[in-house]
């Protein structure tokens, strides 16, 4: 299938699909006119890429998972590498949340201090 059809079937931009292809996450044959030709499995692969991106994984992390043949995040067998990736990402998210809570406290404090100065 052509890239435009894959884009329509997955609701993912052609630009993103080209990026995934260039990064080795998708495999496409090249036709004589140099157009990409994707097989039907590309639809599920793009959907998996999109889910992994929503989970906060990088293109490189997704590539590593695909190389270890872990493709569909909802249907894979238990995989230690996958679990380690999820746990590492969760740890990163928790650190970011803690940092944001600290930033919120600082901003709230600054707002209170600024409001008090305005009143005097």
Strand order of the largest sheet: 1-2
- The span between the termini is 70 Å
For the residues shown, what is the average pLDDT? 87
Uncertain regions spanning at least 5 consecutive residues: none
Can you count the helices?
Answer: 5
The gross shape turns out to be elongated
CATH class call of the largest domain: Mainly Alpha
Q: Sheet bearing the most strands, described? A: 2 strands, antiparallel
CATH-scheme architecture of the largest domain: Orthogonal Bundle
Q: Please provide the ordered H/E string of secondary-structure elements.
A: HHEEHHH
CATH topology of the largest domain: Multidrug-efflux Transporter Regulator, Chain: A, Domain 2
Look at the helices and sheets and give the structural class: mainly alpha
Number of domains: 2
Tally the beta strands: 2
Fraction in helix = 55-70%
Radius of gyration: 21 Å
Structure commentary:
By secondary structure, the chain is mostly helical. It has two domains: 1-75, Multidrug-efflux Transporter Regulator, Chain: A, Domain 2 (Orthogonal Bundle); 77-120. Helices cover 67% and strands 3% of the residues. The chain has helices at residues 3-10, 14-22, 41-54, 59-67, 80-119; strands at 29-30, 36-37. It has a two-stranded antiparallel ribbon.
Can you describe this structure in just a few lines?
The chain is mainly alpha-helical and 120 residues long. The chain is built from five helices and two strands.
Topology:
Layout: H1 3-10, H2 14-22, E1 29-30, E2 36-37, H3 41-54, H4 59-67, H5 80-119
Antiparallel strand pairs: 1-2
């Amino acid at each position: 299938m052509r890239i435009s059809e894959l884009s329509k079937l997955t609701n993912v931009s052609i630009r993103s699909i080209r990026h995934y292809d260039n990064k080795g996450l998708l495999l496409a044959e090249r036709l004589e006119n140099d157009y990409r030709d994707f097989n039907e499995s590309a639809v599920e692969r793009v959907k998996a890429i999109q889910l992994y991106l929503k989970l906060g994984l990088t293109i490189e992390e997704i590539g590593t998972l695909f190389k270890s043949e872990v493709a569909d995040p909802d249907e894979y067998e238990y995989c230690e590498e996958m679990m380690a990736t999820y746990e590492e990402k969760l740890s990163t998210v928790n650190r970011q949340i803690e940092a944001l809570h600290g930033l919120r406290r600082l901003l709230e404090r600054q707002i209170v201090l600024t409001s008090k100065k305005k009143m005097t």
